[in-house]
Amino acid sequence: MAKPVVLTDTNFEEMVEKRKGVVLVDFWAEWCGPCKMIAPIVEQIAEENAGKLTVGKLDVDANGETAMRFGVMSIPTLILFKNGEPVERLVGYRPKEQLMAKIRPHLS
């Protein structure tokens, strides 16, 4: 079972920007209601797409440098990276099917 990896300012470059393939990053915070609503969906996406997609979670309160670098102004923000480059940005709560509609084209 693939679980989301914990991302930090320290490991972000290695785990996301230097990684080949597709990485979905969930920028979130403990106090954020919509973040809590989308968390189980993000975990399902990680499990169902293991081997095709890496999923990571970055706590913006503990890792503000990375959040600022990518212009994350509201959370949850999900950014899809392909070979280290951001290719999709989704802000706010979205149902799973809407998220997958944006992710699927990048998985092939």
UniProtKB/TrEMBL annotation:
Keywords: Disulfide bond, Electron transport, Redox-active center, Transport. GO terms for molecular function: protein-disulfide reductase activity. Residues 1-108 form the Thioredoxin domain. The keyword Disulfide bond applies. GO terms for biological process: cell redox homeostasis. The record marks 33-34 as: Contributes to redox potential value. PROSITE patterns: THIOREDOXIN_1, THIOREDOXIN_2. Disulfide bonds join 32-35. InterPro entries: Thioredoxin (IPR005746), Thioredoxin-like_sf (IPR036249), Thioredoxin_CS (IPR017937), Thioredoxin_domain (IPR013766). Transmembrane segments: none annotated. This is Thioredoxin.
